[in-house]
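BUG: 3D viewer hangs when loading the predicted structure for this chain

Environment: internal workstation, default settings.
Expected: structure renders.
Actual: progress bar stalls at 90%.

Input used:
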Amino acid sequence: MAETHEVTLIGVCDGAIGDGKRYPLLYLTNKVGGLPDVLPVISWQYPSCVLCNGILAHVVQVYCPLEASLYHRTLHLLACPNPQCSSKSESWKVLRSQCLESEIKPSPELSPSPHSPGTEAPIAATDWCDGADDWGMEDEEESACLSDTTQTQVKTTEANLEPVMRTAELDVSGRLRDLCLGEREAIQLDIPTFSPFYVSVVEETDLVEPADLHHAQNLLKEYERREGVAVAELGTCDGGGDEKYEKTRARHGDAVFSRFMKKISLCPVQILRYCWNGSPLYISEPPSNMAQMVPVCARCGSSRTFELQLMPALVSLLRSKDCRSEMAGEFGTVLVYTCRNSCWTWGSTSPVEELIFIQQDPDQKLFK
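Structure tokens produced before the viewer hung:
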């Protein structure tokens, strides 16, 4: 067998979400903004900001089942849309929801099963490592960061998904009615809502330098000129160039930020990085006691592991769905740590809160 290695998945915006008529919005959809599409067994309640007591807005929905797990698994990230709160970790929440395929009531005419809920195997839980290209395929718009091969894989996956979606539509009318009720409820309760976008994905190793990175290159050149350092000489992020990297410090001493800029330079429009049990890409020097700041899971006592992070390019997409100018999101990067065991009690209807950590952007103007 080939030696296992970390696989980092890069998420990019892949077009605005319409009215949901072409593709029903389910928990399988990876998206930015909108209302959360929760697993059918989950009872959803909007959390509030601990600083201003305002209702948190839904930021990102990620469908992310784990290898060898029988559970569907979804993460929802929420944040306070108040500009004074959104850059603080206390004003964010990440909620993990899970359920077995057998807990999702099938349509009787489609797949009657004699198995009991505790023994029926899941049908479509996708492994993030082996099934990376199945993440986010709804929109046909080409992304500037995708190679031709990856675009073909995404379109092929979309074609393969259509029969599944047509099957789901046979038993989805009730959920669509629930969705409409949710939208009305959101309006009545004045729930803040960011404009929704689909998310597409590519493995970071598949990124190729597109022809339209002129703007990104100009940003890097400006950064090099202002800080008196050549980003290209800062070494790699894989450890091989660490010594050279440490010797080539930016004028303001922020080598971590320089490394961050180099790492995202091939795809500066990336809005999300996913690597379960991987290493986060810090935008600034993390606290020296970072390990102590990531406590064990309060439910099972196991350690937490890094799973994903939101990137600065997402900030420009977080705008109010109804054009309320005071609603915005501000951050450098948002780091998410989850229970290594992804512990869950069968039959549970409440999401599990995981850990979120915000790093502010040390130089926000580079991303404008």
